[in-house]
Every structure is written in structure tokens, then in C-alpha cells.
Amino acid sequence: MEIADRLLVAGARVAGAASAEVLLELGKTVTVYDRVDSARLRELAERGARTVVADDFDAALLDEVEQVVVSPGFPPHHPIAVAAAERGLETYSEPELAWRMRGPGAPRWLAVTGTNGKTTTTTMLADMLKAGGLRSAALGNIGVPLVHAANGPYDVLAVELSSQQLHWSRLLAPAAGAIINLAADHLDWHGGFDAYAEAKTAVWRGGAAIANLDDPAVVALAKRSSAETIGFTLGEPDRGQFGVALGFLVDYTGSEPVQICSVDEVRPAGTHNVANALAAAALARQVGVEHEAIGRALRGYVPEPHRNAAVGSFGGIDWVDDSKATNPHAAAAALAAYDSIVWIAGGQLKGVDVDALISRFAPRMRAAVLIGQDRAEIADALARHAPELPVITLDGSDDAVMTDVVAAASAHAEPGDTVLLSPAAGSYDMFTNYVHRGNAFAAAIRQTLNMEDLSENQ
User: Fold this and answer.
1) How far is CA 345 from the centre of its chain?
2) Between 248 and 308, whose confidence is greater?
3) For residues 159-190, b (16+ Cβ closer than 10 Å) or e, as one string?
4) CATH of domain 97-299
5) What is the mean pLDDT of the chain?
């Protein structure tokens, strides 16, 4: 029984609504629960779903269902998950449902997971697959829901998968999967780093395990895996690995190293993105994409927004949007790229300590502007490691605070500085998501500095 006849879908946002829609199309009996009424929920009711809106979940809703499909945001300690486990009900999320829906001739999956760089790696991979003549798309934690692409019209899917999505999976087994890095994140959701890391290994269930040889935590997982491991490294590769030699990305899985492209041609710049490109290349080679096509895709790759992206410059000061840095590991990559920084940070730390990040990068900072739910924790760490550093803490609770953020940063920045939004924290306390946060930052810059396009003032 891969997909039962009677199911509860918990959560009616993008993933939940899409799951309910396809289950109804399959003729299933569907109950949809959400805490908040919405147009989407009403549409599902019109299509034949039973819909329930309530602040508190009533476990009696599980009495007449056989499986539960949860939105990835539901942690294993959520009352719905706990009640389902007590009843022995199989619980999974939208990517697992998409996998179970696959029929003959369904697209193959190449999966990407890790703490940071997943979207960059996945979109690089999709470009490589297309350059190789394969019908592909970047889906999963990005793009349209996987359930809408489970049976076409693609040859191979580049699938970004989060630790939450992978936790709520059991049968999902991609043709190959990459774990690109591991650092503390979502510890409040998983209950600890070991459970977080273990969830990631689900991408190695079905085929080759693409592993970052420069990341000790990933290497430790790979040593326990029974899958064939293909490693990648920023150093010179050994036989059977991908790496960097003489300034080129190379594939040394054959008898001789094969050059893919120059390190300088990888965009966005930075060693972490070279690692992302190597991971994507290793995955693309698993389905036969030629080296020339992989190199061509990397040279033409257009980076996704909000990832160490230049908003513009004015008066010798650069403004950079790295809103996608939702944890300290991601913020470290951006902070390492600049010598003198006015740092904009804060949000939801998700149980992760920022001490090591601040201890390492405080000497590069001219000032810090802090917002969000856990701003006090960041302020305390700055006080310990950089007691002389000017720290401005702002109390706003929505995107309007960005006007004050930009004004404060502008007041402390000097020519040669970079004003860097790299929050090291999640965004849902004040914003719809990291995209909303980054867009609010860019809009506030343009408004505060009275410019339509900062790039014209460089």
C-alpha cells in the first residue's frame, strides 16, 4: 500500500494544497487540516476534500484515515505526528508522495541536500542536464511541487530536498544524491545534530552517494553508507573523485583527469560555489551528461537572487543582499568575502549557537545592525567578542524596519566598506520568507538613498 485510500493532509499551503489536489485527482478520500482558513482551503473543499480549520488539532481526525501527509514544517514532536505514530499511521510529506506516484517512464531523480548551497547546486545541475539535451527542471524545495512533475514531462529532475522533507520519507530513492555540506541547523526541529545529519542520508538510498570530502561530518556519514561513494574536493582529486587541479574543475573518475571549466568561470564567485559546481557536475555525470555540456552550463549559469548578490554601490560603499544565509554556516561564506563590513543580522536562530561565527568575523566588522526574534543572543555574543563594536539593535516587527536598518548601516559605513545583509538566521519571525527579507532590504536601500538603480552610481 504505497498510497492509501483515505488520507489526512496536514497543512494547506503550497506543498499541502498540491498534495491534496493530486490525491483528489487519484480518487482518494482526503481530509485537509489547517489552523488558518484560506482561499486555497476553500478551493479544496469545492473539489471534494473535507476541510477542518482549528487552532488545536483533534486526534479524532485520525480515526478514519490510513496515512498522513504532513507539510515539511511539521516536526516529529508535533501533536499530529505524535498522534499518528501512536496509531501506527504511516506519515510522509509531499516529495515522498511524488515518489510514490511515479509510474513507468517517470523522470529519474538526482537529489541535492546539505546545510547551505542547495538551491545553487540544484539550479546548476538543472542547467547542466538541459545543456546535455535532457528535459529537466529544478524542483523539490524550490519551483513547482514535485507531485505535479512526478510523471513528466521531464527526463531527469534536479531535486532539492531539505532535512525535514527527507525525515518524512521512506521509499524515496533518487538515482544519485549529493550531500554538499553539513553544519548545525534546524536543531529545534530535529532535536539534535545527529538526527539532522541522519535525515540527510536518505538521498543516498537509491544510487551513488556524492559526498563532500572536505567536510568531516559528510565524510563520516559516507563511511557508514553502503552506497557507492563519489567524492569531490576543492583540492587536487585522487582517482575516482572530482576536484580542482591547475585552476580547473576536473573529473578524475576515468583513466585521466578531464577538465570541465576554469575556477574563475564559476558564478557566484567563492570556494563554496566551486564546491557546489563540483557536486552538480558529479551528479550530472551519473546520467551521462558530457563534460563539455557541464562546462558550458557553468559558464552560462545565472545565480539565484539573495545569495551574496550585489544590490549596488554608492559613495564607495557596496550593498550586498545575502538574505538566503539563514544559519551561521551560510553567513560565514559571505562574511569571509569582505574585509570591512557593516553587518546586518538577526531573525530565528533555530537553536544554533553564533559564538564561533562572531568570534571569527568580528575583527572584520565596523558595526552591526541587529533585528528579529533572536537579536539579543547575537548582541550578547558581539558584546563578548567585540565589546568596542558599535551595535544597533532595532525593535521593529515587520518589513518596515528595513528603512531604519539601512539608515543605521549608512550612518556607520565608510568608503571601502560593504554593508552586508547576511542574517545567520531564519526569516519567518518578521517576513514571509528570505526572499521577502531580501527584497525589503533592496527596496529600503533605494528609498533611503533616493536611487532607482544603485548600479548607476558606482
Assistant:
1) 18
2) 248
3) bbbbbbbbbbbeebbbbbbbbbbbbbbbbebb
4) 3.40.1190.10
5) 93
CA–CA distance from 419 to each of 105, 289, 314, 439 (Å)?
50, 40, 11, 15
Class of domain 6-92: alpha beta
The pairing of strands 29-34 and 67-70 is unpaired
As given in the structure block, the three cell numbers for residue 109 are 531523480
As a dihedral over the C-alpha atoms of residue 344, residue 347, residue 353, residue 357, rounded to 10 degrees, the angle is -20
Question: Which CATH superfamily, name and number, covers 309-457?
Answer: Mur ligase, C-terminal domain (3.90.190.20)
What is the spatial distance between Cα 377 and Cα 373, in angstroms, rounded to a whole number? 9
- In percent, the amount of the chain with pLDDT more than 90 equals 84
Strand partners, 91: 68
In angstroms, rounded to a whole number, what is the distance separating the alpha carbons of residues 117 and 124?
A: 11
Query: Domain residue spans in the chain?
Result: 6-92, 97-299, 309-457
pLDDT average, residue stretch 227-249: 97
pTM for the whole structure:
0.79
Q: With contact defined as beta carbons under 8 Å apart, do 299 and 265 qualify?
A: yes
Query: The C-alpha cell of 253 is what?
Result: 573518475
63-72, 97-106, 287-296, 440-449: which range is least confident on average? 440-449
Rounded Cα distance, 377 and 354, in Å: 8
pLDDT (tens digit, 9 = 90+) per residue, 190-221?
A: 889 999 999 999 999 999 999 999 999 999 99
DSSP state of 2: -
